Amino acid sequence: MSPRAVLLFDIDGVIRDVGGSYRRAIVETVQHYSGVRPEPSAIDALKAEGCWNNDWEASLELLRRGGLAQLPAFEALVEVFNGFYFGGDPEGDPGAWQGFIGSEPLLVERNFFDDLSAAGVAWGFVSGAEPPSARFVLEQRLGLSRPPLIAMGDAPDKPDPTGFLHLASNLVGSLGASAAPVAYLGDTVADVLTVQRARQVQPEQRFLSLAVAPPHLHSPEAGERRGRYEAQLREAGADAVIPNTTAVLAALEQALS
Q1: Cis peptide bond prior to 147, omega within 30° of 0
Q2: Residues 6+ apart with CB under 8 A from 244
Q3: E strand or H helix at 134, and its extent?
């Protein structure tokens, strides 16, 4: 049976809180090389530019903008970053990882996806996370069995829509005017721009861009910063900004009505 709609998710900031893991690894990596710890607002501002979805490249760019006299080789930076994030061999046994990945709160539970399926919504994931990290949270922590996934290395980095369009086509069958609507929920400007560019490639297909502010902006003291961040998501073209990931089915139903 064809789905009523397809809902694709980013992972970081949408399925799991990476404020104390990936974002912390950015901070620690920049400090490792420069001695300076970037403020959360500096990382938010960089992400708002829409072209720094890859956290390795984001770390290098913060070092460049900070005026570091000699930038590290990219491969060396990746090794340092992964040492903080994984704390072990990324391709090895997750049970041996000692890094920040072990402290990522989940933002949804397993039954969230059962509810989507029961509503006739097909779902999958398009993420810039490394495959071992993405599989770890989806399969081991959430218990999803071989979920549809595009991760780092499977397609060009967002906002290039190639991976998004590939997975959407697989789940819909064939994109076009008669196909089910395809929505994407992300937490960055790059995620919103991915949908905008998908529309340029497949103008007959109905796409929806849904967005949510990342968890570190949901604390009471971050209220003003959250407002600015959500405004940037809307300005980039988000069709709706929702309060949290679990509100996405209601937002999708409203958009489809």
Answers
A1: no
A2: 107, 212, 218
A3: helix 131-135
Instruction: Transcribe 24-45 into DSSP letters.
Output: HHHHHHHHHHHS----HHHHHH
Helix-then-strand count for the chain, H and E: 10, 6
Lowest mean pLDDT among 130-139, 166-175, 215-224: 215-224
Q: If you ran DSSP here, which 8-state letter would residue 140 be given?
A: I
Q: Which helix (H) or strand (E) holds 240?
A: strand 240-241
| pLDDT for 1 | 66
pTM for the full predicted model: 0.91
Burial class (CB in 10 A: 0-12, 13-18, 19+), 142: middle
Q: Given a cut of 70, is residue 174 above it in pLDDT?
A: yes
Amino acid at 167: L
Which amino acid is it at 61? E
Q: For the purposes of burial, counting CB atoms within 10 Å of the CB of 146, is it exposed (0-12), middle (13-18) or buried (19 or more)?
A: exposed
